[in-house]
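Help! Submission page says 'invalid entity' but I think these are all valid:
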Amino acid sequence: MPHEEFERLNREREEIGDNPFANPRNAAAGSLKMQDPKEVAKRKLDCFLYYIPHNLEGVKTHYDALKYAKELGLKISDNMAICRNMTQIMEYINDWNRGRRHLPYDIDGIVIKVNDLSLQQQLGFTTKNPRWAIAYKFKAEQVETLLESIDYQVGRTGAVTPVANLKPVQLAGTTVKRASLHNADIIAQLDVRLGDTVYVEKGGEIIPKIVGVNLHKRPPHAEPVRFIDRCPECDTLLVRKEGEAAHYCPNEDSCPPQIKGKLEHFISRKAMNIDSLGEGKIEMLYDHGLVKNVADLYDLTYKTILGLEKVIPAEEGKKEKRLSFREKTAENIIKGIKQSKNVPFPRVLYALGIRYVGETVAKKLAAYFKTIDRLIAASYEELVQVEEIGEKIAESVILFFQKPIHRDMVERLRTAGVQMELTEAQPLEPQLLQGKSFVVSGVFERHSRDEIKELIERFGGKNVSSISSKTDYVLAGANMGPAKKAKAESLGVPIISEEEFEAMISRKG
Amino acid sequence: MTKKEAKIRIDQLCEELQEHNYRYYVLAQPVISDYEFDHKLKELERLEAAYPEFVRPDSPSLRVGGEPTKNFPSVKHKYPMLSLSNSYSLQEIEEFDARVQKAVKQPVEYVCELKYDGLSISLTYTDGVLTQAVTRGDGVQGDDVTNNVKTIRSIPLRLRGNYPPQLEIRG
């Protein structure tokens, strides 16, 4: 598993209150044992192959066996080397001990194998290991430093992460000042205390971690860390659900990082798709007190946001930066917000950020209840009747709409013109054919011509009657007129079949 | 589309997608856009849904994940999957070299490789098609995780070129 994926996965796990994986090996092993291959597919696992345990005709060395495997299309690491003596082996080890931090993957050592396969056979095996190979494990680079204090950061979902502030120290080529302590369980396991001298390690990993405490240097009277019980951002009492490792701030509607999280979710591409706003701009609007919940966005005017400024103070190595909303920016923001009023109801429902209501669930709920009012009024029993809606989701929906602040937000959004019900004319489908023009000709197997034309429009395409150089596609059924065909070919307009057309619109947006 | 045509098209798409997978994930030299790739994959999935009898065991559509499995059957390794002895000092490597030289009584050539931090897996290709993927387990038997392994894009579902009837390879 590449570093990047490993870190993404652990961030995700912390956000949902799971314990992070200790290393890429655990992460990969855990991934391969998941019950749903679709989930496995989402984890970006990779695989390098390195050993064929049986003879191959005409292959005399390990090196050639792998070369052959490569010809068969198997992925073999390029970083192998033939070494003829100890000096060359040492060189290889030293090179990679230094070079490993530039690899996209973690390596924890190197492997040395006898190349000649007949010699391998002659050497044979002990009960546990082959006698013709040995692994050399790198020492993880480790330093001692002082744990000065612990900060608590609140994430976009309300998860609270403890972060250790360390006395700056050099480790594997970088200065380390901070290290994540993940959650209360990890703190308890390590039994780290303020003022402790801790061991910080950086294997191949990019993010340093605290692996232990030098107890000899523990100051007298050092007390075990007491995890905070109130949110450092909004002072709300934290909660910890049974079976979850993370502490959460339950104040989803007025805890600043969570508000920003909700706003960011609301404007995101799959939700309201207001791409003239982004994380930085949301932050600015929030910091100026203009937007405290998603409904506030629709009260913004060109005048109120024009000229807003934010100064990012100078940091080491970086100059002071000044951001401001100029005419064009302000105009685009207001335009984007206005356009979002056309976003169909299922996406609006998703944008509200109800816990466990993802894109698919939002679509199902919208299709079943048709309007937000019916959804708000729905009982638990009604909700669980909907396809794919289980107890967890039903409870979450009910809890969400129980709060007056949420119902009030819905009202304000509705008043602003945001879609709160399904209408037949609304394009429910992703606009996959946006801007494409089609000429439909001939007879089709699975659809009538009119159905095809309707599909084109529902997916955002345009029907035109005659072929020109501006036509994007000719959708051809059986018995298409030969003249049309010739014309399409001479103009280089692609001719697609019913199947190909279906494939175009079946791609998930 | 007749049944026969469907089969031909399925086969054709499988071949094409395999070639593109190889170029993308193994060679890192893609020749078509992600969009075109997805497009072809969707067509294949649709055809496979309509004609399940033609789904091939090496179909690239398996990359996106098949049906969930409740448990992973235990499978005995044909060749035991031993772990390597570990060493932490250069001195231990010198001792290893001395042992080897003494046993074979001739100069020895070594191959040095990187040791990736991950887990080991044993792949079996029968007539060029990936038929089984098993974890190391206790070295004698491991868990059959074939369906999950098929989602790893850099592992070919079908071998290229001149492959042996049976190939086991580990990574």
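Support: the input was valid. A stray whitespace character was the problem, and the output above is from the cleaned input. Chain A touches chain B through 90 residues (CB under 8 Å).
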